[in-house]
Amino acid sequence: MEAVKLIVAFVCLTGVSALPSARLEKRAALNRDTRYDVWANPQRILFRLDTNYNGTEAADIDDAMNQISSDMSSCIRFSPFNVVTDSREDHIFISPVLNSGVLATSCSTFPGRLVRQNGQGQKMIMTAGPGGCMSAKRDIMAVLVSALGLRNEHKRPDRDDFLQTFPSNILPDLQSLNLLRIYNASQIEFRSTAFDLLSITIPSASRFARANTVLYTPRDATRTLGNLARLSVGDCNALRRMYPTCSSITCRNPYANATLASVASTSTNAPASGNAPTSTSAILEAVQSAAGASGSGLVIANTNTVGATTTSTSTARTTVAARAATTTQSGPVESPFDGLEFALRPQA
Fold it and tell me: Is pLDDT at 74 greater than 80 in this prediction?
């Protein structure tokens, strides 16, 4: 009895689960911020696509959407917004351009359906280039699942129990942004869940790191970070939990027979796996251009994922460009860089 009391006291005081790992639910962290909610009909999540995308970029977004749908056994689907029949429906407007008309230098999205959009639409910034997120399908998927309501696994309050972090490796010009800040426990639902090192929401360890270094490595040297353009079992289970219509699906493990690129044994000053970090100037330009913006928080996308590649969809499959030809409605809710999930998230 005394042991039970001690466990209860530990959980109440620390917010960290004291359950054995075998009993922890295998799913990623969920949103608890009341400014955001789930999508009412997950089998018809409406989106509008900016006509600024070329055919290859549109096909890559389509490919990422279809991969999420496949990993979720089609219980989640993205559908093109129709300006006539869907004019009052909540939706996502995907664009490489800020409402100001300036081409974005990084990617961002709201973490779930923005409650206050009231059919106006919410902006998802998805852009190519050095600071963008369109060079790898895994990166595009990560932005999309954030808009579904998943939160970044590497920012859980219990993160330090599973990842060793190296704040000194952050690019010098970004030191003041507190890139490794963890969430306030009130922002996400994570208790009694296993930390998911394979979650698609965890960016490459070299993202925002100085050359030839990493920002974090798994504390368990036998474990590695995910690198596939697939939802992990934890990601899938989290979405199943959020969307009741997905409750009957079986989450498949894409890593069952996969070979992972290991960063667990990488020295904190050794060459890191994956692409080179985004240029400091590109990141600062994005942050500075939106300084002082007001409104609800956005999620900055985490790019340069280890081992991922972007592939276009089959020509036999209908592309996003063809499906979303009617994208003339304007004025989606946009609040760039106010409360960035990766960099500037304010405490609740």
Answer: yes
